[in-house]
Write a structure and sequence with these properties.
By secondary structure, this protein is mostly helical. The protein has a single domain, classed as Arc Repressor Mutant, subunit A, CATH 1.10.10. Helices cover about 55% and strands about 10% of the residues. The chain is built from 4 helices and 2 strands, in the order αααββα. It has a two-stranded antiparallel sheet.
Length: about 100
């Protein structure tokens, strides 16, 4: 079932995963590579899962994507690392100008 594969994918991830990457992972074993609208299928399935009470949060930004958890869970170490990396990148770009 797609919902189970999405949960397994997000559970195994060490960072937030964009919908396109989730689609690539969950449909990797499909001989056809999944539906033509695989990313949209992931989006709608995650929306349905949220409606069913599954705690999936969309982390915004360049290093963004989906994670399991609540808004309060967003500040766990993996996410903090992504935020720090993004801040350093933005600071470096400002120094170049």
């Amino acid at each position: 079932m797609l919902k189970d594969r999405i949960i397994a994918c997000l559970t195994a991830a060490d960072r937030a995963l964009p919908a396109r990457e989730i689609a690539n992972i969950v449909y990797a074993g499909d001989p056809d590579g999944g539906p033509l609208s695989a990313t949209e299928t992931i989006w709608s399935t995650i929306r349905d899962m949220r409606s069913d009470g599954v705690e999936i949060v969309n982390w915004p930004g360049k290093f963004g994507g989906y994670i399991l958890g609540t808004r309060e869970d967003l500040l766990y170490p993996v996410s903090i690392g992504s935020v720090v990396a993004e801040c350093f990148e933005l600071a470096a770009r400002r120094e170049l100008h």
